[in-house]
Amino acid sequence: MRRYVKKGSILLIITFIATLLNACTAVNQYSNASQAGKKEFKVGMVIYNAEDTFIGYLRDMVAYYIELYEEEAGVQIELEVLDSANSEELQNNQIDHFIKEGYDVILANTVDRADASMIIDKAQRAKIDTIFFNREPVPQDMKKWDRIYYVGTSAEEAGRMQGEILVETINNGLALDKNKDGKIQYVMIEGEHGHQDAILRTYHCIKVLEENGLKMENLGTDSGSWLKNEGKAMMETWLEEFGDDIEIVLSNNDDMALGAIEALKEYGYFNGEQWMPVIGVDGVDEALEAIENGTMIGTILNDYDEQAKCIVYKLYQCIGVNDLEIDISTEEKDNYFWVKHKKVTKENVDTVKKHTSILKK
Ligand code: BGC
Ligand code: CA
């Protein structure tokens, strides 16, 4: 299923002709990559921080799919992945290194969204196609050059879906309003400030809940920088301050939600007597397990499998391989790939588990 779609012979001939045509245009269009006859390519990938669980999934999936399609594409790709360890300066040096060493394509997960501008200028000067992912450059930057691309998800959609899961769970009988004061007291663990996914996920989650007639009362909102230990520390502070007055824990991602669950366990929750609804985003393994065992109400799948496939699909196009048919369900529109989210609850958690099974092989 994750293989190339096999085609009949007529289509093969068409593909062959298309490849020839592509090869011709590619030479003009791309000066670095796609030089006629070139079979070996170097791809440089920077990730903002290797400690980030979700980014780790994306990195591994991209490496997996690059390798999977090499033979079919008849090329060899050397992938170098560099960890920018949350340092903009280090990331800039890493980009300079890719340029100096004549890399053919850059895959960029920026430390700061605002850095995209500088990376685009450098890539354009060196004529190196660049695919940004997960950290979305601002639209003005994306317009700077036509050989830059973005693969990501809609932050609004993830937030909305979180709200919808909660509304559905309430409709199915979950009583959130423990103290029966007509309001839902919540805490919100946010991602890194400045990240498109932090502000928008929060805003749209609360909006959906309010649109459905719930009165939401915020007890605390803080940034846990996407990290589990920070989510845990934040939850400890709130539990000290508000105790069981908290009626729900909302989190911009799974890792911070899982950190909050660790804190909740230490404060006596999930031991059969006390329970707390917690929801995240991403669909990482540990969250899927938490959904199965009832410590998480749900999550939103930030489809890393599909995102990795889109990145790899575009990457092959950038090096002039246009005849690969990868089974992606996302269309490219104006250099953007917007991958759809999916709601995950106890009912469908099984179907999502296959996503990470590739990584465990
Ligand atoms: C994910 C987070 C991740 C962040 C990194 C978000 O889309 O939901 O888990 O830490 O991207 O940029
Ligand atoms: Ca209440």
Automatic annotation (TrEMBL):
Keywords carried by this UniProt record: Calcium, Metal-binding, Periplasm, Signal, Sugar transport, Transport
Subcellular location: Cell envelope
Domain Periplasmic binding protein: 43-317
Residue ranges crossing the lipid bilayer per the database entry: none
A Pfam family annotated for this UniProt entry: Peripla_BP_4
Signal peptide: 1-23
Main location: other
Subunit-level organization: The ABC transporter complex is composed of one ATP-binding protein (MglA), two transmembrane proteins (MglC) and a solute-binding protein (MglB).
Name of the protein: D-galactose/methyl-galactoside binding periplasmic protein MglB
Origin organism lineage: Bacteria, Bacillati, Bacillota, Clostridia, Lachnospirales
